[in-house]
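Q: What residues go here?
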């Protein structure tokens, strides 16, 4: 089986014969057979376009699609969730090198799985989702089923092939287009070029650290001794000049 991993956020484990984590429960290491694991059942009646760059408001609207509780909790006789709208969300940062490396592969992923809507959001600019969905770093790829986050990609390999294998394992959907990355995928919608914008949060953090360091240094005993030594030297120097005059 594929070495890529999903970190499960819902109650249904992913079809992967690797370690996975059930959130809210004790960590479990399991080896499930491919045939016996339930899938996240996706609707295939719509064809979506390229990746959509969204803000917080837009993402909230997308997550509210078909929010029926009955659809989220019911399973069919094969153990699969009742069909619902599927979406993949990429949490990224424009200055992150790993995000830039994953960007063209994610752009191509939306073309390969046309029945799954692909969106990307700047996790640094819109940080309110980070704590809510357990986004501990970027890039993070999250699978959403019927408006509910159900799994997160949990691997260090960010390639189109690894993304596609994980989606196929979790949803049983096959790629609708050949798996290859074009030159246009490096341009956008998610840019593969690092931005040179200033990270003001980082600047403020360094200012705070420097201010704290200066404050505690000024309160230390050796600093006071240094100040007294300089003052005494200055007084002696002035006294010698006055005596010479």
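A:
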């Amino acid at each position: 089986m594929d070495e890529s991993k999903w970190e499960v956020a819902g109650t249904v484990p992913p079809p992967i014969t690797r370690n996975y984590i059930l959130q809210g429960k004790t960590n479990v290491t399991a080896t499930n057979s491919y045939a016996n694991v339930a899938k996240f059942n996706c609707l295939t009646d719509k064809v979506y376009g390229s990746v959509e760059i969204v803000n917080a408001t837009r993402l909230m609207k997308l997550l509210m699609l078909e929010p029926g509780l009955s659809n989220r909790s019911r399973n069919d006789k094969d153990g699969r969730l009742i069909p619902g709208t599927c979406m993949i969300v990429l949490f990224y940062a424009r200055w992150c090198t790993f995000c830039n490396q994953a960007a063209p592969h994610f752009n191509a992923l939306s073309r390969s799985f046309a029945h799954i809507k692909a969106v990307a959001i700047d996790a640094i600019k819109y940080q309110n989702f980070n704590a809510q969905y357990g986004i501990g770093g970027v890039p993070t790829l999250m699978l959403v089923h019927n408006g509910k986050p159900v799994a997160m990609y949990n691997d260090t390999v960010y390639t189109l092939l690894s993304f596609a294998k994980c989606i196929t394992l979790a949803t049983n959907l096959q790629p609708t287009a050949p798996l290859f990355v074009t030159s246009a995928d490096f341009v956008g919608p998610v840019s593969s070029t690092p931005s040179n914008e200033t990270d003001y949060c980082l600047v403020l953090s360094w200012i705070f650290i420097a201010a704290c360091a200066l404050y505690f240094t000024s309160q230390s005993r050796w600093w006071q001794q240094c100040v007294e030594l300089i003052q005494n030297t200055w007084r002696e120097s002035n006294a010698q000049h006055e005596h010479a005059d």
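A: Context that may help when evaluating the design: The helical segments are 56-63, 69-73, 97-112, 128-133, 160-171, 200-218, 221-244. The domain at 52-187 is CATH 3.40.30.10 (Glutaredoxin).
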